[in-house]
Amino acid sequence: MVATLLSFFLDGPTGKLEALLNQGTADAKYAALICHPHPAGGGTMHNKVVYHAMKTLHGLGLPVLRFNFRGVGASEGEHDGGHGEQDDVRTALDWLTAEFGKPILFTGFSFGSAVGMRACCPDPRVPGLVALGVPAAHDTRRYEYPWLASCDKPKLFISGSQDEYGPKAEVEEIVARAAGENTLVWVPEADHFFQSADGPKLAEMQQALEGWIRAHFLL
């Protein structure tokens, strides 16, 4: 596979959205979309967790789109607290549909998982969703997921067992209330960013992501 990286802009609802596409193989059955964490914490499409998730999905032959939410990097517009960002996700889905015409697998990290799942759950173009480090609370921000009760698509949740923004009890409750087939994977000793005192735990995250995608969509 020729690993070609394309840099371009999407025409978003509030202006241009900076984007990167890692091209996949010609016979890929799916395309993939990945959303980044909260910009207030420095989150961009170049985030390390996002990058490693992209490497996993691209390694499976999928074309993978990343983009910067409004007001991040070279993307135009202003941060909208996760509301307008849902329209940014829909813009990305529209572009992937026009470009590839394939079902789209969604992956998001932290804020990106909360915003992206909200936009993708009701969208028939998205057959499966992955939430990395799904957040429950961060400083004054609280994340609620009542709409997951009607989202019956297969979902994978991967979190660190020491995630400071997604304590185990709260994440387990989020997953338990979600409809459909849900898989929850805990990466031992890892924090929100899949790091531990002994070093990074990103490989464990990647292994869980790859195994789930293969079992549910590529067999």
Walk me through the structure.
With 219 residues, the protein is of the alpha/beta class. Helix content is 30%, strand content 26%. The strands form 3 sheets. It has an 8-stranded mixed sheet with strand order 1-2-4-3-5-6-9-10, with helices on both faces. Strands 7-8 form a two-stranded antiparallel ribbon. A two-stranded antiparallel sheet has the order 11-12. Helix 2 packs across helix 3. It starts with a strand and ends with a helix. 46% of the residues are buried.
Provide tags for this entry:
alpha/beta; two-stranded antiparallel sheet
* Main pleated sheet: 8 strands, mixed
Helix content: 25-40%
Shape type:
globular
Biggest β-sheet: strands ordered side by side in the sheet: 1-2-4-3-5-6-9-10
Q: Write the element-wise H/E pattern from the N-terminal end onward.
A: EEEHEHEHEEEEHEEEH
The separation of the N and C termini measures 20 Å
Please describe the topology of this protein.
Elements: E1 5-12, E2 15-22, E3 31-35, H1 48-59, E4 64-67, H2 84-100, E5 104-109, H3 111-120, E6 128-132, E7 137-138, E8 141-142, E9 155-160, H4 168-176, E10 182-187, E11 195-196, E12 199-200, H5 202-218
Parallel strand pairs: 3-4, 3-5, 5-6, 6-9, 9-10
Antiparallel strand pairs: 1-2, 2-4, 7-8, 11-12
Helix pairs in contact: 1-5, 2-3
Give a nutshell description of this structure.
By secondary structure, the protein is of the alpha/beta class. 30% of the residues lie in helices and 26% in strands.
